[in-house]
Amino acid sequence: MDVSLDAVTEFSPSAGPVPAPFLPPEAPLAMKAQNLHQQPDRHGRPFRILPTTPSFLWLRRLFVFGGALLLTGYGMYRINQVFNSLGVSALGVIILILFAILAFWIALSFTSCLGGFVSLIRRGGLGLGIHRTGPLPELKSRTAVLMPTYNEDPTRVLAGLRAIHDSILATGQIDAFDFFILSDTTNPDVWVQEERAFLEFRKATNGDKRIFYRRRHKNIDRKAGNLGDWVTRFGSSYQQMLTLDADSVMDGSLIVRITAAMEQHDGVGLIQTLPVIVGGRTLFARMQQFAGRVYGPLIAHGIAWWHGSEGNYWGHNAVIRTQAFAEQAGLPHLKGRAPFGGHILSHDFVEAALMRRGGWAIHMVPGLFGSYEESPPSLTDVAIRDRRWCQGNLQHSKILGTKGLHWVSRVHMLTGIGSYIMSPLWLLFLLFGILISLQSHFYHPEYFGTKPTLYPHWPRVDPVQAKLVFIGTMGILLAPKALAFIAMMFDRAALRGSGGIFRLAVSIVLETLIGGLIAPIAMLIQTSGVISILLGRDSGWNAQNRDDGRVSLKEVAHGYWIYTVFGLLLAVAAWSVSQALFLWMTPVLLGLVLAIPLAALTASRDVGLGLRRAGLLLIEEETAPPPILQLAAANDAARERAAHAPNAPPEEAFAALRQSAALRAAHESALPPARKPGSPIDANLLVGLVKLREAPSLQVALERLSRQEKAAVLGNPEGIQLMEQLKA
């Protein structure tokens, strides 16, 4: 093999002007993995009650949990009358246990929303001395804005980041912020596109000393490892870090206000904003953003109302005290194999729990608007994302026993687990209900009071009590929507932005009906996800689809036929028992039987935009977009024009580097250090260099190189020179 390791190690970049460095000088900050089996070092900070804990927080929690328990107890009494009115039976007890879990779940959401309703009406949801309006506070420390990205379209990611930059610039406090694009990209073509987009961003903003780019060549521990790498290399230079997602957009004044609040409260470790979903065009995405904007504030105000200083972290659109994160949020690897072992997948909940364990306050401020994100465009895309989230949340079962956690932090993890476990429990409840009806239909046991009998006792269904339980359950389920509608009456701008009272009401009904039909499909999707995880299947790590491209009916049918078949079988089973049972189950059966057209309809951009033109499913942010969203939209339109321009730069990495000497020089200046003797040998690099040497042309080289080999040679000076020498 005609490749020298010395040549690989000692080759120097091509001569040329030296570009500005991609990164600032390193400022390391220690971040050790936490021991989950022993108490943390809190460095003298209190644990039970923190300086920023709201007064009478215990009373709010008593109302939420006590009210949920009372509602659950009453529901159990009623459901027992439905199935066990003539005595206790095995099936009746199973139904009662399942109902108790499910009833507490929806009752807890209901009582939390009652607290949220009070907070909304009183215009709460702030705290920490934060004001919605008025002069912006003056920042005194430095904050790093962190944009992690993984195989995303870099022009799209940086369109949002540029909007954030320009919005902060408009506040007059841009000098308090640096911006880091933290890439974990493995696609070599996207890697070079990221560098080009980064350089253009820098040039357009004169940001050589403020905007930085770092790509990890070994993306260990996914997003948590990405942020951890930044903390250990640059963390000590910044008092705060603002974490974003690839689709995040945040208003500059909001950023300044929450950053100032952290500066003014030394014991606060994290402040989470409420990201509002925007930019939806398909029917599914528009339903998501409508629900998030109308019901979301009620839910968020509710949980913030009783979480207090024991809030949660959603992984992005939050400001974090760097010291607190480094000191307490280092994540260990869990024992065992994936999906339950290995690195912690859903890191955000755990990081917040560990910081609170260490005596740092975690707050949420849903009363401030100006924080935005996007929704996946279809049910299929949500299912793919949910499979990863499901695994991460179920993995928290191994963290619940961590020593020193606050009980509310454990509730956060149980809630995350419950959000996926409830689907198979609902399915079991449904199937056991059918079984009881089936037994009642085919078996007719005789009852002789206290006299002995050889016949078993089967539970009987009381239809009157069943109707009352159904009405009560639906009332609790739909009450948050009614409360959100009432709360919107007190917000004239939001009401006007949603099309007025009539269109808002019609939109809520429409979203509820379509959402109700989708619910049984989502139940089966999540149930299959839970089962696959219990069987030991790992979700992997794939980039999130954010484009609303058209999906053929054939593709939809291939993915959803199984739900239709299950619905038909369930319908036959229900009809064979009784027509009454069939009619009771109609909402579930309709959603499953119509799974294919529902998935196709909700993934349609034409339907979504048609409803927008009709004034339905509107939100304030699209009818009267704030300046930050106008900036983001303008940047997105500009990138679309540039992408379709005749002189658009090539997307393929080798072609892009060969076309632009400046891009090549910048790329070479940011390559990783040369391999040291004795360190592991990169087989992809060695094989890739051989293929480049033997290839007669660039086209042949591209055909022969694997994705990993291409990335390896792009990260090596000799590989870049060999690439440059190839014939086009």
State the low-pLDDT regions, or none: 1-16, 445-449
Largest sheet composition: 7 strands, mixed
Structural class: mainly alpha
β-sheet strand percentage: 5-15%
Q: Please tally the helical runs, counting DSSP H or I stretches of 4 or more residues.
A: 29
**Helical content band:** 55-70%
Distance between the termini: 25 Å
Mean pLDDT: 91
Give keywords:
mainly alpha, 29 helices
Describe this structure in words.
This protein is mainly alpha-helical and 728 residues long. It is built from 29 helices and ten strands. Strands 3-2-1-4-8-6-9 form a seven-stranded mixed sheet, sandwiched between helices. Helix 5 links the parallel strand 2 (177-183) and strand 3. Helix 3 crosses helix 13 (407-442), helix 4 runs parallel beside helix 5 and helix 12 (379-395) packs across helix 16 (500-534). The longest helix is centred in the middle third of the chain and has 36 residues, at 407-442. 44% of the residues are buried. The model is unreliable at 1-16 and 445-449 (pLDDT under 50). Pfam families: Glyco_trans_2_3 (PF13632). This is Glucans biosynthesis glucosyltransferase H.
Quick take:
It is found in: Cell inner membrane. Belongs to the glycosyltransferase 2 family. OpgH subfamily. The chain is built from 29 helices and 10 strands.
List the helices and strands and how they pair.
Blueprint: H1 5-10, H2 57-83, H3 90-121, E1 143-149, H4 154-171, E2 177-183, H5 188-205, E3 211-215, H6 222-234, E4 240-243, E5 249-250, H7 252-264, E6 268-272, E7 276-277, H8 283-294, H9 296-307, E8 318-321, H10 322-328, H11 347-357, E9 361-364, E10 371-373, H12 379-395, H13 407-442, H14 463-488, H15 492-497, H16 500-534, H17 553-577, H18 579-584, H19 586-593, H20 595-602, H21 605-613, H22 620-623, H23 627-643, H24 653-659, H25 661-669, H26 683-694, H27 698-704, H28 707-714, H29 717-725
Parallel strand pairs: 1-2, 1-4, 2-3, 6-9, 7-10
Antiparallel strand pairs: 4-8, 5-10, 6-8
Transmembrane segments: 58-77, 89-118, 425-444, 464-486, 516-535, 556-575, 581-603
Family: Belongs to the glycosyltransferase 2 family. OpgH subfamily.
Protein name: Glucans biosynthesis glucosyltransferase H
